[in-house]
Design a protein that fits this description.
The complex is a heterotrimer of chains A (85), B (332) and C (219).
Chain A lengths: L9 E4 L7 H12 L5 E6 L2 H13 L3 E7 L5 E6 L6
Parallel strand pairs in A: 1-2
Antiparallel strand pairs in A: 2-4, 3-4
Helix pairs in contact in A: 1-2
Chain B lengths: L3 H11 L6 H8 L1 E6 L2 H14 L2 E4 L20 E7 L8 E7 L2 E7 L5 H7 L12 H18 L5 E6 L5 E4 L13 H14 L5 E7 L2 E7 L3 H7 L16 H13 L3 E9 L8 H7 L11 E8 L2 E11 L2 E6 L8
Parallel strand pairs in B: 1-2, 1-3, 3-4, 10-11
Antiparallel strand pairs in B: 4-5, 5-6, 6-7, 8-9, 8-10, 11-12, 12-13
Helix pairs in contact in B: 3-5
Chain C lengths: L4 E4 L5 H10 L4 E5 L24 H12 L4 E5 L5 H9 L3 E4 L4 H14 L3 E7 L2 E7 L6 H5 L11 H4 L3 H16 L7 E8 L4 E8 L12
Parallel strand pairs in C: 1-2, 1-4, 2-3, 4-5
Antiparallel strand pairs in C: 5-6, 6-7, 7-8
Helix pairs in contact in C: 1-7, 3-4
Classes of the chains: A alpha+beta (85), B alpha/beta (332), C alpha/beta (219).
């Protein structure tokens, strides 16, 4: 899913994390943003790829895009919604 | 903001929907004063500390629990009391008691009605905890305290545990110690009705339930009484109001049929004074006891044909307690 | 009096269940768990402290329980229960408590009740809710309740879903109460459901399904 050209308000890198810390970091980062804020998450591996976008959607946030980067990691863009954390 | 050690410790809790960083900080912002003993207190303290809340206990023996001190950001500002019946928390907390072989836990928020809690815990004896019941009650207690710290749940909520350990919710009856919450639109309709009665006092009844309040406009029967018998009824409708008994009975019957109750009687003072007058007081509680228990009184003071203020008077613990009723915006 | 009881899984459910049984005067408990204590366990498994991280759970729990309850004999198994372990483990005990967190393990244990004849108190907690059910030989089992076992990823695991420690405590203690209580009437089991968000507690009767693949005659 090609991401829209948007400048994230915050960035986190969870390539070194394992479950459940992958989503814990993402959840906290989202909660710290104002509603409408955009979070960029750099992630790596099957499990985070499966779980992080879906868990973010579960909470009511929006997946803006998911790009594969040259080094094999992924860049996920999430928009913080009012639904809460 | 949480520190790294806090994030590591509370990770699985931070994942909970409705409990994120702010929730964890709320858990740490409360200090629980536990005035209980035994396995009940041991379990409650262990779970509260594990979850990130500081606990102060009289006894220090932790039992089998590790009783790890919580990781808390800054010293907790709020206090929560946990006690055994018949004591009650001063502001916010949980009381545990026993009744007819079962145990009951009542949890009250700061904004909860303590008069209601007093009614609820009236027949509770101190808890008699034997064997595994202490662990069940202790964990339930910790759960209720955490809900309070997180700002979840109703201002007064309870759980009952049978002798066999079966759990059920106990509900507090509708609070009659406070003015009912009246939606702006109903209040506006009331003001309109009272204004239409000017220069006489107007009156009305509010009926309903927690989730829906209805206005029943009434006629001021004082005019008719005075016209019929000026000696027995010296005051006119300008300075007094009364409800026709038949109209009143109709209101009661219809409310009953609809599963509602009478929440309040409202009347106006066409030219001030604001608030519950001595006359009003004598009418509402002729012998020092409320004529209509559970019914609040609302007095709207007018000036120059416009509503200026509204005051509630609610009977609680031996007297009428007055409070302000904010007028809907367009009437200010 | 409760006979020898085995607690399979010494996590969020097993810890409070073990303590509750000990408080009830249990004389023999077997604790089974292959995991070591991790930091992320501490918020909901209050038998373990930061100083215990890295040690096998059953060792730490065994020590704490033995110290606090002198009359209690504790046996520990520091391994994960697999299919070959279930039958001998259940056969040696008067009752079993399911403190596992995997769907597979729960159904494995439930299926063994009718074959071995050892009652099992099943239980689970996720997010703001939980369930517990006592399964007796002749009573309804997990397959009577659910039909087929849900796929592992249909049910959110702890990792994604999150758990409140005190609620796990409530469920584990409830499991212990059910263990200490009477057996279910023939052909039935009672499912206890806890909704921690609305603070509602329900009990539902589960009826045994004839020819159930879990507990039926051909199981």
């Amino acid at each position: 899913m090609r991401s829209p050209r948007v400048t994230p308000d915050a960035r986190i890198d969870i390539t070194a994390e394992v479950c459940p810390m992958t989503f814990v970091r993402t959840k906290i980062a989202l909660e710290r943003l104002p509603v409408g804020g955009v979070l960029e998450v750099r992630l790596k591996g099957d499990e985070p790829l499966r779980n992080v976008p879906e868990s973010a959607r579960d909470l009511g946030h929006t997946v803006l895009g998911l790009d594969r980067l040259e080094d094999g990691t992924w860049r996920l863009l999430l928009r913080r919604e009012a639904a809460g954390c | 903001m949480l520190t790294e050690p806090q994030i590591q410790r509370y990770a699985r809790q931070l994942l909970l929907r409705d409990l994120g960083e702010k929730g964890q900080e709320s858990l740490g912002a409360v200090r629980v004063h536990l005035a209980l003993g035994g396995s009940l207190a041991g379990a409650a303290a262990a779970y509260l500390r594990a979850g990130g809340t500081e606990v102060e206990r009289a006894s220090t023996s932790p039992g089998p629990w590790a009783s790890t001190p919580p990781l808390v950001g800054s010293p907790p500002a709020r206090r929560l009391d946990v006690l055994a019946a018949p004591a009650a928390p001063g502001r916010s907390g949980v009381v545990v008691g026993a009744a007819a072989g079962a145990h009951v836990l009542w949890s009250i928020a700061e904004e909860g009605c303590h008069a209601c809690l007093d009614l609820a815990r009236r027949d509770l004896a101190p808890p008699e905890v034997r064997g595994p019941a202490g662990i069940q009650l202790g964990t339930l207690l910790a759960f209720l305290v955490q809900r309070r710290a997180l700002g979840l749940g109703s201002p007064l909520e309870g759980i009952q545990m049978s002798r066999e350990g079966v759990l059920s919710t106990v509900s507090a009856p509708d609070c009659i110690h406070r003015p009912p919450a009246v939606p702006g639109s109903v209040l506006a309709a009331l003001l309109h009705h009272l204004a239409a009665a000017l220069p006489d006092e107007g009156c009305a009844v509010l009926v309903g339930r927690e989730d829906g309040v209805r206005l029943v406009p009434m006629e001021n029967a004082q005019a008719a009484h005075h016209a019929r018998d000026p000696e027995a009824f010296p005051r006119t409708a300008r300075t007094a109001f009364s409800l026709d008994p038949r109209a009143w009975l109709t209101v009661l019957r219809e409310a009953d049929q609809a599963g509602e109750r009478v929440l309040a009687i409202a009347h106006s003072h066409p030219e001030g004074p604001p608030g519950f007058s001595d006359e009003d007081r004598r009418w509402a509680a002729p012998d020092g006891q409320p004529l209509l228990p559970g019914v609040a009184h609302l007095v709207v003071a007018f000036e120059g044909g416009r509503p200026r203020s509204a005051r509630w008077a609610v009977w609680a613990e031996g007297d009428f307690r007055e409070s302000d009723c904010p007028l809907p915006a367009e009437h200010e | 009096m409760l006979g020898a009881t085995v607690i399979i899984g010494m996590g969020g459910l097993g810890c409070p269940a073990a303590v509750a049984l000990a408080e009830a005067g249990a004389r023999r408990l077997t604790l089974v768990d292959g995991d070591v204590v991790e930091t992320s366990n501490l918020h909901r498994q209050p038998l373990y402290g930061p100083e215990d991280v890295g040690r096998p759970k059953v060792e730490v729990a065994g020590e704490r329980l033995s110290q606090a309850f002198p009359g209690l004999e504790v046996e520990t198994w520091a391994r994960r229960v697999g299919p070959p372990d279930v039958e001998p483990l259940l056969a040696r005990h008067a009752l079993a408590i399911d403190g596992t967190d995997s769907v597979g393990a729960k159904f494995l244990l439930s299926d063994a009740v009718a074959r071995i004849g050892t009652p099992l108190v099943s239980g689970g907690v996720v997010q703001w809710g939980g369930q517990a059910m006592r399964i007796d030989p002749g009573g309804a089992c997990l397959r009577c309740l659910y039909g087929t076992a849900p796929r592992e990823d249909e049910v959110p695991t702890c990792a994604r879903a999150g758990v409140l420690g005190s609620l796990a405590g409530v469920l584990g203690a409830l499991q212990a109460s059910l263990a200490l209580g009477p057996a279910s009437p023939a052909g039935r089991s009672t499912l206890h459901v806890v909704d921690g968000r609305t603070l509602r507690f329900r009990t539902l009767t589960v009826r045994r399904v004839p020819d159930c693949p879990g507990c039926g005659a051909r199981a």
